[in-house]
Each structure stands twice: as C-alpha cells, then as structure tokens.
Amino acid sequence: TIAIGDIHGCAAALKSVLDAIDLTADDTLVPLGDLVDRGPDSKGVVDQLLAIRDLCKLVVIKGNHEEMMLRVVRGESPQEWLKHGGVSTLDSYGFTGDLSVIPESHVELMETAEDFFETDSHFFTHGNYDPQQPLSEQDPMILRWQSLIMSTPGPHSNGKKAVLGHTPDKSGEIFDIGHLVCLDTYCYGGG
C-alpha cells in the first residue's frame, strides 16, 4: 500500500513518484486527496491516475479541493474554488467559459473518491479525524477540511495508524508523531 500526499496539480512530480515506485498489480496506490488546484497541470495529474487504474488497485481519497471543484461542476458558485487554486485547474483544462472541457471520466474519478480507506494496520483520509468516532461515522467536514493545526488528534480508537494529507509542512518533510503521519510535503510550493 503506497500513499501519496497532496499532489495539487503537480503532474511532473507525480510522474517522478510513479516512475520511482514502479507499480505492480499487487500494489494499492492511495492518493490522499487534493489532486487538483494550485499547481500547473491538474488535468495531467488526473490523466495519469486514470491511466494507472489497470496497473494496480487505485483508491483515491476525496480532498477539500475535489469537493470545491465538484460543487462548481454541479453549478454552484465558483468564488471559493477560484480563490483556492481553481483558476490554475481551469487553465490546465483549456477552459474558455465552458466546463464541458473537463472530461466526464475526471469528474467521475472525483465523485467516486472515498472519504477514507483502511488496511489491517492503517487508515487513510485527507484532513483529520475524530479519534473516538468510527471511521464510517466521521463528519466529512473533519475528514476533508480540518487541518492538524486546528486540532491534532490522539490515536484513533481502532488502534490503526492514521495517514493524512491536507496540512502542508512547508519544509517539505513528512510529519510523523507515531500514531499519525501527514504526507503533505508542500509539493506545489516546491516541497
């Protein structure tokens, strides 16, 4: 099982990681959300992930940036999304005023993304978690929007190690406190 922190439109960095890990059919790849926004090639990120679905098991976790993008695709106001990196995403799709430039397969990948994923020893989600609440009953706002700066939870009651993204470490390092690992290494900012 291989987790990848927030990619944020950095298709070249994703390609480097995928080349280095050389996926096989026995691998499970878990991108931890925030595939899109801020970086230069969100479309290229999603294209790469769609292309590897036949090479391995792909479990995409839904991040807050996918949630914002999906709201716009469904017809809601784009203001919040545009302020948080949506402009670079639209540019990567060649947007000229018509959202149909975003392929349905890309929208479907984001719509079917999971809130969390579990193995025997770990669980994976985007932002945060309530340590006392079963994963299946977690508030999506906590899972996708709450940073570790707002609240760093203790060990989850299931005893599994948490693997998260969402809270960037601007030094480019992995944040590891034993029961919790955050893999957002600030890719779009050079980490």
Structure description:
This protein is an alpha/beta fold. It is 31% helix and 13% strand. The strands form two sheets. Strands 4-5-6-8-7 form a five-stranded mixed beta sheet, with no helix packed on it. Strands 1-2-3 form a three-stranded parallel beta sheet, with no helix packed on it. The longest helix is centred in the middle third of the chain and has 14 residues. The protein starts with a strand and ends in a 9-residue tail after the last strand.
Features:
191 residues, alpha/beta, 5-stranded mixed β-sheet, 3-stranded parallel β-sheet, 6 helices, 31% helix, 13% strand
Briefly note the structural class of the backbone.
alpha/beta
Query: Uncertain runs with pLDDT below 50, 5 residues or more?
Result: none
In whole angstroms, how far apart are the ends? 22 Å
As laid out across the biggest beta sheet, the strand order is 4-5-6-8-7
The helix count comes to 6
Main sheet?
5 strands, mixed
Q: What does this entry show, briefly?
A:
The chain is α/β, with parallel strands linked by helices.
What is this structure's SSE topology?
Blueprint: E1 2-4, H1 11-21, E2 28-31, H2 42-51, E3 57-58, H3 64-73, H4 79-92, H5 104-111, E4 116-118, E5 122-125, H6 140-145, E6 161-164, E7 175-176, E8 180-182
Parallel strand pairs: 1-2, 2-3, 5-6, 6-8
Antiparallel strand pairs: 4-5, 7-8
Helix pairs in contact: 1-2, 3-4
